[in-house]
Write a structure and sequence with these properties.
Layout lengths: L7 H12 L6 H8 L3 H13 L3 E6 L8 E6 L11 H13 L5 H16 L11 H14 L4 E4 L9 E4 L5 H26 L3 E11 L2 E8 L12
Antiparallel strand pairs: 1-2, 3-4, 4-6, 5-6
Helix pairs in contact: 1-2, 1-3, 2-3, 4-7, 5-7, 6-7
InterPro entries: ArsR-like_HTH, WH-like_DNA-bd_sf, WH_DNA-bd_sf
Pfam families: HTH_20
Organism: Streptomyces anandii
Length: about 230
């Protein structure tokens, strides 16, 4: 079935409903356009299915049957493309204009989101370094980084994690000086929230053409925030 964007007649039906002062029935809508009611009924059903129009039943004020009417659904049209990458470019460009402190601002934003995104542990339970690394790898996997830990055994943490996919690849290629600190900060914030005896000490962007490399280190001070990105 053609979408409203592809169907001039359907757009016309929608325009008539939007211009009306009150909901319209099939016959009224057809009369305003000058087409057969069955044609209008087909397009109204499609508009309801697309979520652009609401179907209502009006009870009669006197004798007679209830009347089915149609009205445009309130709110902005949610179809069409999104441009979140453009929004990210705008915000990154603005952040980059702040000068030398921009990297730390980006890292702190990542730490805040890392603390927010990591799942909580049971009360009073402190994870081992290996358990902390497992939780971090699970979080990175959920976020689309395709992480591959190098070593580790559930008790001892891996020294490095390969990140084989970057969910912000094009932005990282354009604004790596800001995007990569966000990634490092995210890992640091997650480990801090876990109270982990482990920290992310650095992130090597594109250490190999096929992956970035996150460095981990066990710490006597749980979840320290040593930072080295790029």
């Amino acid at each position: 079935m053609a979408s409203t964007q592809e169907s001039p007649r359907r757009r016309e039906v929608l325009a008539v409903l939007r211009a009306a002062a009150e909901p319209l029935g099939v016959t009224e809508t057809a009369g305003r356009i000058g087409v057969h009611p069955n044609t209008v009924r087909f397009h109204l059903d499609a508009l309801v299915a697309e979520g652009l129009v609401e179907r209502r039943v009006e009870e009669p004020s006197g004798p007679g049957r209830p009347r089915t009417v149609y009205a445009p659904r309130p709110g902005m049209d949610r179809r069409g493309t999104r441009s979140y990458r453009l929004l990210a470019q705008i915000l990154l460009g603005q952040l980059a204009s702040r000068g030398p402190g921009a990297r730390e601002e980006a890292a702190e934003a990542g730490r805040a989101w890392g603390r927010f995104l990591v799942g909580p542990l049971p009360p009073y339970r402190k994870p081992t370094a290996g358990q902390s690394a497992d939780r971090l790898v699970a979080l990175l996997d959920d976020l689309g980084f395709a992480p591959e830990p190098e070593g580790g055994d559930g008790v001892k943490a891996p020294a490095r994690i390969r990140l084989r996919h970057c969910p912000f690849l094009e932005l990282a290629e354009e604004h790596g000086e800001l995007v990569c600190p966000v990634h490092l900060g995210l890992m640091q914030g997650a480990l801090a929230e876990l109270g982990a005896p482990l920290t992310a000490t650095g992130l090597e962007p594109f250490a190999r053409p096929e992956f970035c490399l996150a460095h981990l280190a066990e710490s006597a001070d749980p979840a320290g925030t040593a930072e080295k990105a790029g």
